[in-house]
Amino acid sequence: MSGSGALRGRIALVTGGSSGLGRATALALAADGADVAVLARGSSDLDRTAEQVRARGVRATAVVVDLADADAIERAVGQVRAELGRVDVLVNAAGTDVPGPVADLDVAAWDRVLAVNLRASFLLAKAVWPDMTENGGGTILNVSSVAGRRGWANAAAYCSAKFGLTGLTQALAAEGRPHRIRACVLFPGAMDTNWGVWAPEHRTGSAEPTPPADALAADHVAHLISWIAAAPPDVVLNEVTVTPLLEQGWP
User: Tens digits of per-residue pLDDT, 134-145?
Assistant: First the structure.
């Protein structure tokens, strides 16, 4: 795959890079010329993503990290900086979920969902902020969900984290404006990844949801993310909602 080259010379950090949207985003950014650091919990699939990034003619590094561990996040960003130099583009694409009704949710499970889906995005933005301010700007893209616009039964932890991600992104955008740092929150509908929160008719209780037939291709969303990252500095998108053409029932 050949890209536009619009991100050549930029360095991107992508979480959730071992699979799904994270992997697709890493490859899309690489196709557009960016060097890419991918973060995730598992090493084998993460290494495969890094190899695929390098195959596009750019540098890559893979860092195994548990995003629920604040100290590990700080060490991971330090490793990325040591190997690639800095971070110009941050894509928080990792996510986790513990479905079930509020009355049955375990507190530790709730805390982990909030840590991975919300706190990690804050910690990563905080960690790369000096790079972006010192280098005259940057782009932070936080992947939320349509579940960040509307709460659903049996998805309280996930929805709460994704709603919070909107507020975090708005604050980052306001604080980043004087430094030419852009922040955008993305609200994808159902995607063809291996897990996700979908409309109520696709989710009952704690059962594993199944994607609707018209789910978005992760590659398509990834190319949109790369396009936003490569947009001219004076083009600022703070919120983007993307849904399948025939998707029903979304706000």
Answer: 999 999 999 998
In angstroms, what is the C-alpha Rg of the chain?
A: 17
Catalytic one among 122, 158, 187, 198?
Answer: 158
- Beta strands 35-40 and 138-143 are unpaired
DSSP bridge pairs for 39: 15, 63
148-167 burial: b if 16+ Cβ within 10 Å, else e: bbeebebbbbbbbbbbbbbe
Residue 71 and residue 88: Cα distance in Å, rounded? 22
Alpha carbons 242 and 10: distance in angstroms, whole number: 25
CA atoms of 140 and 94, how far apart (whole Å): 14
Q: What is the pLDDT of residue 127?
A: 98
Architecture of domain 11-242: 3-Layer(aba) Sandwich (3.40)
Greatest alpha-carbon span in the chain: 51
39 is written with which tokens? 């973060």
| 158 included as an active-site residue | yes
Full DSSP string of 121-155:
HHHHHHHHHHHHHHTT-EEEEEE--GGGTS--TTB
Please name the residue that has the structure tokens 């704690």. Answer: 206
Q: Is 246 helix (H, G, I), strand (E, B) or coil?
A: coil
